[in-house]
């Protein structure tokens, strides 16, 4: 069953603000001095260069290619599309751009992030350039096609809106695909890429507006910078396997807590035995399951992965009694969840045979469940530091394990 991360939609707010803000700022540009406008005209290149350097440092090939694409689109508009689109050469290049923006964004949205300095990264760059070149061939096919097809991709369908009907529909489809990818993956790159898509759309659809490519080029670059900053934060503070905040984020949070708080330490019961029996892949799925439930703890708690199969939850301004019910609810939800594990001996040697058999018959599976134990401790006296509270919660955790596991002790 697919799990949709609806909270990920909030990542579209910042790109939307950049793009809409750029549209509003554009109206004030004609009042600026000539020298200021010259500087602004160079800013899209500068911001794209900053994005490219940051993406290179963080090994984010998708955002690096997006930055290069933003610079290329801006260069194309500034050097070849500042003329009447009734000219055949300009009309052809405009059609190429209106195809390239959605198709290349779609490519970057579906492309997995698997590093830069490897074969995958090299192939990703080669296919990106090849896809850009294919847009020229596709444009020529459309121009030479039947009158109905060429008319669907003809510019200026309505007054004040230049983008063709066909390209507008293609952009809308890619936007829907991007939102779906954002909901399914819950990754950091989809939001900035959708911002680039929106900025590219505005640059082409409202090409007749003065300085539209300048402000949209800057907005697209800012979307990418924002995405790279979020990506760097995730690399530094989030656990890659579970998506929870990690030890570094926890240490910073502990240093900023007030005088009243509660800390809970949680541990997956018999995890090493489970790992040895079912394998590390299944063990990773167990950790993801537990993390997904712990993340939803109530009463204002924030979950962190402490290390291995151990998790930590911080409840600011709460007593241990206040948090016990929320923790017990999480414990019950985890214990009640049944995981289906396919019998490895029943699996065929070839994956294709396995896929064919799954379509015809149901392979026998074993249902298993996991439990957690938790220890809860609150800051009880002045001068007590967070490390002491964690040690107290750890002591309660081991008491829960000695008492039979699958329980909360506070």
UniProtKB/TrEMBL annotation:
**Any one cellular-component term (Gene Ontology):** plasma membrane
Q: Which reaction does this enzyme catalyse, per its entry? A: 2 GTP = 3',3'-c-di-GMP + 2 diphosphate
Q: Which EC number applies?
A: 2.7.7.65
Segments traversing the membrane: 37-56, 63-81, 93-110, 122-149, 161-184, 191-207, 213-229
GGDEF domain residues are 259-410
Biological processes per GO annotation:
cell adhesion involved in single-species biofilm formation; negative regulation of bacterial-type flagellum-dependent cell motility
Which InterPro entries has this protein been placed in? Diguanylate_Cyclase, GGDEF_dom, Nucleotide_cyclase, Rev_trsase/Diguanyl_cyclase
Highest taxon in the source lineage: Bacteria
Which terms are listed as keywords in the entry? Membrane, Transmembrane, Transmembrane helix
Region annotation (Disordered) ranges: 341-362
Q: Does the keyword Cell membrane apply?
A: no
Please name the GO terms that the record assigns under molecular function: diguanylate cyclase activity
Q: What is this protein called?
A: diguanylate cyclase
Species in which this protein is naturally found: Pseudohalioglobus sediminis
């Amino acid at each position: 069953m697919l799990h949709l991360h609806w909270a990920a939609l909030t990542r579209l707010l910042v790109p939307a603000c950049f793009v809409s803000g750029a549209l509003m700022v554009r109206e004030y540009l004609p009042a600026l001095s000539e020298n200021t406008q010259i500087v602004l005209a160079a800013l899209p290149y500068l911001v794209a260069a900053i994005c490219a350097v940051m993406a290179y440092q963080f090994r984010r090939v998708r955002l690096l290619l997006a930055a290069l694409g933003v610079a290329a689109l801006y260069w194309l508009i500034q050097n070849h599309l500042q003329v009447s689109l009734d000219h055949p050469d300009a009309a052809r290049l405009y059609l190429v751009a209106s195809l390239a923006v959605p198709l290349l964004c779609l490519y970057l949205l579906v492309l997995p992030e698997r590093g830069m300095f490897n074969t995958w990264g090299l192939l990703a760059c080669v296919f990106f350039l090849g896809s850009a070149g294919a847009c020229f061939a596709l444009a020529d096919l459309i121009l030479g096609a039947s009158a109905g097809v060429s008319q669907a991709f003809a510019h200026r369908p309505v007054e004040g809106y230049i983008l063709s009907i066909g390209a507008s529909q293609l952009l809308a489809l890619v936007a829907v695909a991007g939102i779906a990818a954002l909901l399914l993956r819950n990754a950091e790159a989809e939001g900035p890429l959708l911002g680039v898509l929106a900025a590219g759309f505005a640059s082409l659809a409202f090409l007749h507006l003065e300085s539209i490519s300048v402000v949209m080029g800057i907005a697209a670059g800012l979307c990418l910078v924002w995405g790279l900053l979020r990506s760097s934060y995730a690399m530094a503070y989030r656990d890659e396997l579970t998506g929870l905040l990690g030890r570094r984020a926890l240490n910073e949070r502990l240093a900023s807590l007030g005088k009243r708080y509660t800390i809970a330490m949680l541990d997956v019961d018999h995890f090493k035995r489970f790992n040895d029996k079912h394998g590390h892949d299944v063990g990773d799925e167990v950790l993801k399951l537990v993390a997904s439930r712990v993340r939803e703890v109530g009463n204002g708690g924030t979950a962190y992965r402490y290390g291995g199969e151990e998790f930590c939850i911080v409840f600011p301004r709460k007593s241990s009694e206040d948090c016990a019910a929320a923790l017990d609810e999480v414990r019950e939800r985890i214990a009640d969840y049944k995981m289906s594990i396919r019998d490895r001996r029943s699996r065929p040697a070839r994956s294709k045979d396995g896929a064919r058999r799954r379509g015809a018959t149901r392979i026998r599976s074993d249902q298993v469940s996991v439990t957690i134990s938790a220890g809860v401790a609150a800051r009880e006296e002045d001068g007590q530091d967070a490390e002491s509270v964690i040690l107290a919660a750890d002591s309660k955790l081991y008491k829960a394990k000695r008492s039979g596991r699958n329980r909360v002790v506070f």
